[in-house]
Write a structure and sequence with these properties.
Blueprint: E1 6-9, H1 11-23, E2 30-31, H2 36-40, H3 44-47, E3 56-59, H4 62-70, E4 76-79, H5 89-101, E5 105-108, H6 111-124, E6 128-135, E7 143-144, H7 148-156, E8 161-167, H8 179-193, E9 200-204, H9 206-211, E10 219-220, E11 245-250, E12 253-257, E13 262-263, E14 269-270, E15 275-280, E16 297-300, E17 303-306, E18 316-319, E19 331-335, H10 345-352, H11 356-361, E20 368-371
Parallel strand pairs: 1-20, 2-10, 3-4, 4-5, 5-6, 6-7, 6-8, 8-9, 9-10
Antiparallel strand pairs: 1-11, 11-19, 12-15, 13-14, 15-18, 16-17
Length: 380
Amino acid sequence: MEGYLTAEISVSAVAHNVRLIRSRLQRGTLFCPAVKADCYGHGLQFVLPALQDADCLAVATPQEAIQVRQTGWTGDILAFFSPCAYQRESDITEALDELIAAKVSLTVVKPDDVHHVCASASRLGMRAKVHLKVDSGMHRSGVHVQSAVEIIELVGKHPQLELAGVYTHFATADEADKQYALNQLDCFRQAAAGLKCKPLLHAANSAALIDMPQSHLDMVRPGIALYGYQPSDEMHNKLPLRPVLRVLSRVMQVREVPAGAAAGYGLTRRFERATRLGLVPIGYADGYFRCLSNKAVMKIGQAYAPVAGRVSMDQTILDITDAGNVSIGQQVEVISDDPAAPNSVENLAKLAGTIPHEVTCRLGGRIRRVARVEDSRPTP
């Protein structure tokens, strides 16, 4: 059944963005795209075909790691979250056994993590790869810089473990002032300077990859740039990225109201003239933010129709008075893949006071993801 809400995902746009990102890397720098949160809401099954030459894929949770492996991906997978955070010993054991058997590289941040991973690897008769997360100044997760060498030495005592990498994450790489990010990089380099072994060192997210080439180290972990969005408006450099996603719906009802009428919950939009209204079946349950009420627009044909009144859970009212002869069933472009359009992901994020990452990650399950047929895209 054809859905009334569709997100077109462009594999060619992902491939374009990958080429742009790779063009900024030195030969030999490994490429580890972040595919967590179902590829930032875009859909792993649609994005993965453009990432087949990646050196590694990065995910957040153990469950995501297993999902990636179940797609048939045979390359390296790095999971940022440690299953050792689970409270019950049986849960830790079960999760680690499954991840190690699936050859997922695991993040460790404390000695207990190392002991748990070692125990599971020994039980399975396998060697497990681990990456140590170092807190270089973001203070969100990771081992303190001064304790990093201690854990690295602990890993080295266990032949069942391979220290495959040491990494950190930047707090302010997407801001105009890079000084704190540069300080983090210096701190991380110092922590790694005394290592006797030579694991992969990695730190660069999308913002650092674009603006801080000195942070590329052995491997980069781009996220939002893969999907076609600038990390922030404060970037020193902006790549000609192509947004991957376009969300379409249809007009489900048309009505006329007289001058003085008002629409939506709370009657927050009152009309000064006789007005035609179109109803679109998308709302905040689908990730179309309620804070876009009376602010955002959607495109019908060549016209932009403003949101009239509050966004409801499942429906949004548009003022279609100036959109021409709109009819029931007519296509509506809810979110555009044109970064300059008023209904682009980036512009909707600005209206909502958030970031593109949240806009795409919040798109709900009722929105059917489909691969875009590049040469026959319909006009709204």
